[in-house]
Amino acid sequence: MSVLICDSNCELWYTRVNELGLDYISMPYFIGGKEYFYDMGEKTDFRSFYDTVRGGEIPKTQALNPEDYKNFLTPYFERGEDVLYISFSHAMSGTFQSLKLALDELHERFPARQCRVFDTNSISLGAGIQVEQAALLKQQGASDEEILSFLNDFTNRVCVYFVVDDLMHLKRGGRCSDLAAIAGTLLGLKPMLTFNAEGGLSVLSKIGGRKRAITTLANNVIEQLRDEDRFPVYVVDADCGEEGDKLRDLILAKRPNANIIRQIVGPVIGSHCGPGTLGVIFVGDKRPIPLAKQA
Q: Would you state the pLDDT for residue 176?
């Protein structure tokens, strides 16, 4: 018997997590000198977080340590349960080295137990939509092997596009060079970003102006969306809800049958992309093909 788990960087909303019967690993963030753990939006004060960031406070994130993972996983193994963990991109964090160390130690204590990890090569709801589909299969009685077989194909169909409002947030997180951040900010460029096949951040294009960026995001969904009767479209915003609603409406004007779910970006992801980020996550024929691996 196995238990399906995820982490809070998949950003499924807490009510959906409860519906799917998922357990999750809470990822930490720091702001105002305090440590918090993201709870999938259940009690998160999004307004306070984004107001504080807009006021100049720099939030930080941190990898979990091996003890954190051991404390989380040990109860499952003690109950004789295996674990299938659908995770956010391993290329985006050093936390998975801690996970490996924890699993090596746990294997010595529980040699009959296993924790299989599937790397979604994505983050936020790019990972979340994969967790969601895995959980639905689990509810239908699918085995771990059947779930992993599905995900191996499905992950290559998950399309993630997003634009940030201020490149300096990506620069602080090491996702964008100083020169690119300064030049892009001065020129008003909005890079269209995605996750490549290895789970790293990649640039698709550089767009002049906010309005054009929103239109481009909408057009990507309109042109590339597949299986709209089966899979949702997530439209996410980092404290720019009116623009997120506009993006949703642009999509629905051309794809009225799309099941669009609106959601705010959580503090962990928001620490790296910054306020004003807009994104779309949906299922197409294949992942976007990037121009380069990093901004």
A: 44
